[in-house]
Every structure is written in structure tokens, then in C-alpha cells.
């Protein structure tokens, strides 16, 4: 699909992933209509307005996912829609209100607006590895997880993994609605996103990495991918007319111990309270085949972490944390 010099929409434009996507789209010559919840928060959009090409080809609009029709007037001239907006919260009190309703109904509202915009040729949905991994599939060191895996909603509820549940339900709802309404939908399933930040504030996953550095968070295993690769894959998924179905985006699958080793080497020696004694529990590999078929050449995890730590230092997040800890 030759979409260059055409208009595309990105929901949740000021987020971690979306900011890189907007940057790449502008560099590739697109006119980008970005939606944010509150245009009045200058700090949320200043980094977008400063991007190369933004003055000429970035248009920002207010839209809230939970309001049906909020995208109707924005999409009329767009050829593509990237739906990245979704609450990313790991610690919550009301899963239904905070996560499930905005994720599922929000996605549905966005797709309903697409059915009113005949110019839209394709929708690229940012789902997650969260809608892939949480199931009872047999697994061992030689198991390869691929796009045929789906998270099991009952297991998400049983284990109270609400973000996993929200992403699973949102993806399933989107696929069903797209099939029923003739929408060409391609789904991205990124792993845990790492790499440099464009936005001035910490998003949930970057915060999580800072917490690992502080020795707080322990997942048994992580499937990492660079934010720049996530952005590239989204654009490839729009432009490649043969793109279809889901695409798992994971460069490296490592256990907690390995992740900590990388971080330990990269942060300054004063930040040395990482969990060194956590044993590895990595029980599967992740297929890269489908993502590579799009033309994606993954950035190695070591480079992503190096650039992320530099970015966190540059934005004073590591510095701020050290000062608070010393108080
Ligand atoms: N980061 C990861 O590790 C990771 C991994 C896999 C998939 N993903 C997916 O990637 C997407 C982007 O995540 P991110 O990490 O970039 O998170 P982020 O920085 O928190 O971005 C999420 C965006 O969604 C917007 N949003 C949330 N609720 C909304 C609502 N009701 N109406 C309109 N906008 C709303 C937020 O807008 P406000 O700024 O107004 O709050 C924010 O811009 C999400 O779909 C996430 O599930 C992320």
C-alpha cells in the first residue's frame, strides 16, 4: 500500500510507543493526525511539536476513547489508523473501570468511527504479548511461542492479571468487529517495550525498568523489544499490503537474572542493589519469523538497554531516584 504523503491517524499520540511512531511517520513524509486526551497539557505534547516535520504535517486533536464518536470528525481523510491508545497500568483498584472498559469499549469506539470513514484502508492495532502468553500451553526450553498462542481469559481472571485480561479482550473484540464490518485489521503484539524515551514523563513500562534497577520488580521472564522497532513494525504493517493477522514483536526473551545482568552493567556502580540472586525461569522461546517477514531487523536488546539508560539519565530519572533514595 503506497501511503506516503497521505494522512494517517495515531491515537494516544503522546505515549511512549506512539511518540516514536509519530516521529517515524513524519520522517517518512506522512501527515499525522494525533489524538491526545488533553491538549491543554502543554508538557504532554511539546515533544511532539518539536519533531522534524511536525510544524508542517502534525495535527493534534482531543479525543477520549470512552466517548463514542470522538474520532468521527478526525478520520474522514485518513488512509490508515494506528490505534495505540490504551491504559497501561499494573497497579489498580478497579480493573473493570480503569482497564477493561477503556481498553475494550475504547477499541470498539475507535473501530466504529472507522466504519464511518471510507478513506481508511487499514487499521493497525497495538495489542501486546500480554494477549499471547498467559495460557496453559505446555512449555519447555525448546517450546517456541508464536502467533497461534492466545492468552486464556479464565486464567487471566484466576491469576488477577487485569492488564493481560484487558489486552486479550480488546484484541479479541477488535478482531471480531473487524471481521463483521469489513475492516482490514493488522495486530501488533509487542513484548515488554524498552529503549529511549521521547516523552518527558515516565510511562508504566519505563517506570517498571527503573524499579528493576532499584531491586523492586521481579518477573520470572521478559520478552523485550525496542520501542523504535515497535514503531517501524507498525509502519511496515500499514505499508505492506500482504500484512495480515498478528505479529509478535520480541527481540530477546530472557529470565530475570539475565535482564538484571544487562542493567547492572549499564547503570553506574552506585546503583548496585539489583537482585543478583534470582534464579532464571525461562521456559519458552519466541518466534521472530512473522515480524521478520515484514522486513523488521531487530535492534539487539543490549543496544536498547544502553540507549534507554542513557535516555533515563539524560532526562534525570536515574538521578532523581538516587537523590530520593539518599534522603
Ligand atoms: N510499554 C510496553 O511495554 C507495551 C508492551 C506491549 C504493548 N504495549 C501497548 O502499547 C500501547 C502504548 O503503550 P505505551 O507503553 O506507549 O503507554 P503510554 O505511554 O502510557 O501510552 C498510552 C496512551 O494511551 C492513552 N490513553 C489511555 N487511556 C485513554 C483514553 N481513555 N482515551 C484516550 N487515550 C487514552 C494515554 O493518553 P494520556 O496521555 O492522556 O493518558 C497514552 O497516550 C498500549 O496499547 C499498550 O498496551 C505497550
What report would you give on this structure?
With 327 residues, this protein is of the alpha/beta class. It has a single domain, classed as NAD(P)-binding Rossmann-like Domain (Rossmann fold, 3-Layer(aba) Sandwich), CATH 3.40.50. A seven-stranded parallel sheet has the order 3-2-1-4-5-7-10, with helices on both faces. A three-stranded mixed sheet has the order 8-9-11. β8, α8 and β9 form a beta-alpha-beta unit. α1 packs across α9 and α4 packs parallel to α7. The longest helix has 21 residues. The chain is globular, with a radius of gyration of 19 Å. The C terminus is likely disordered. The structure holds NADP nicotinamide-adenine-dinucleotide phosphate. The site of NADP nicotinamide-adenine-dinucleotide phosphate has 28 residues, from α1, α4, β8 and α8.
Contiguous helical run count: 13
Radius of gyration, in angstroms, nearest whole number: 19 Å
| CATH structural fold name | Rossmann fold
The first-level CATH class is given as: Alpha Beta
Secondary structure: number of strands: 12
Count of distinct structural domains: 1
Note poorly predicted spans: 322-327
* Quaternary organisation of the protein chains: single chain
Mean of residue pLDDT values: 90
Strand content: 15-25%
What helical percentage do the residues reach? 40-55%
CATH architecture: 3-Layer(aba) Sandwich
In whole angstroms, the N-to-C terminal distance is 56 Å
Strand order of the largest sheet: 3-2-1-4-5-7-10
Largest sheet, if any? 7 strands, parallel
| Secondary-structure element string | EHEHHEEHEHEHHEEHEHEEHEHHH
Bound molecules: NADP nicotinamide-adenine-dinucleotide phosphate
Gross geometry = globular
Q: SS-based structural class?
A: alpha/beta
Say which CATH homologous superfamily is assigned.
Answer: NAD(P)-binding Rossmann-like Domain
Amino acid at each position: 500500500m503506497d501511503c506516503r504523503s497521505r494522512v494517517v491517524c495515531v491515537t494516544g499520540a503522546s505515549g511512549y510507543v506512539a511518540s516514536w511512531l509519530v516521529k517515524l511517520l513524519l520522517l517518512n513524509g506522512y501527515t499525522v493526525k494525533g489524538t491526545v486526551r488533553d491538549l491543554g497539557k502543554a508538557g504532554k505534547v511539546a515533544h511532539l511539536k518539536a519533531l522534524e516535520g511536525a510544524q508542517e504535517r502534525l495535527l493534534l486533536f482531543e479525543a477520549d476513547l470512552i466517548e463514542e464518536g470522538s474520532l468521527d470528525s478526525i478520520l474522514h481523510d485518513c488512509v490508515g489508523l494506528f490505534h495505540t491508545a490504551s491504559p497501561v497500568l499494573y497497579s489498580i483498584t478497579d480493573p473493570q473501570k480503569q482497564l477493561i472498559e477503556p481498553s475494550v469499549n475504547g477499541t470498539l469506539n475507535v473501530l466504529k468511527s472507522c466504519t464511518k470513514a471510507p478513506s481508511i484502508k487499514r487499521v493497525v492495532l497495538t495489542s501486546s504479548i500480554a494477549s499471547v502468553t498467559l495460557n496453559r500451553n505446555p512449555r519447555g526450553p525448546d517450546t517456541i511461542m508464536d502467533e497461534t498462542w492466545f492468552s486464556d481469559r479464565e486464567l487471566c481472571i484466576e491469576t488477577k492479571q487485569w492488564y493481560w485480561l484487558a489486552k486479550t479482550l480488546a484484541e479479541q473484540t477488535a478482531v471480531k468487529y473487524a471481521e463483521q464490518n469489513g475492516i482490514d485489521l493488522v495486530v501488533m503484539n509487542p513484548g515488554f517495550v524498552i529503549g529511549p524515551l521521547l516523552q518527558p514523563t515516565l510511562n508504566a513500562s519505563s517506570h517498571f525498568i527503573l524499579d528493576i534497577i532499584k531491586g523492586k520488580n521481579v518477573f520470572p521472564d521478559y520478552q523485550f523489544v525496542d520501542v523504535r522497532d515497535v514503531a517501524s513494525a507498525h509502519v511496515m504493517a500499514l505499508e505492506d499490503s500482504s500484512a495480515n493477522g498478528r505479529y509478535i514483536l520480541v527481540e530477546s526473551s530472557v529470565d530475570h537474572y539475565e535482564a538484571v545482568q544487562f542493567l547492572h552493567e549499564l547503570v553506574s556502580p552506585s546503583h548496585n542493589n539489583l537482585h543478583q540472586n534470582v534464579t532464571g525461569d525461562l521456559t519458552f522461546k519466541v518466534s521472530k519469523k512473522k515480524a521478520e517477514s515484514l522486513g523488521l531487523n531487530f535492534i539487539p536488546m543490549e543496544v536498547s538497554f544502553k540507549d534507554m539508560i542513557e535516555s533515563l539519565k539524560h532526562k534525570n530519572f536515574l538521578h532523581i531516584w538516587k537523590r530520593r533514595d539518599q534522603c
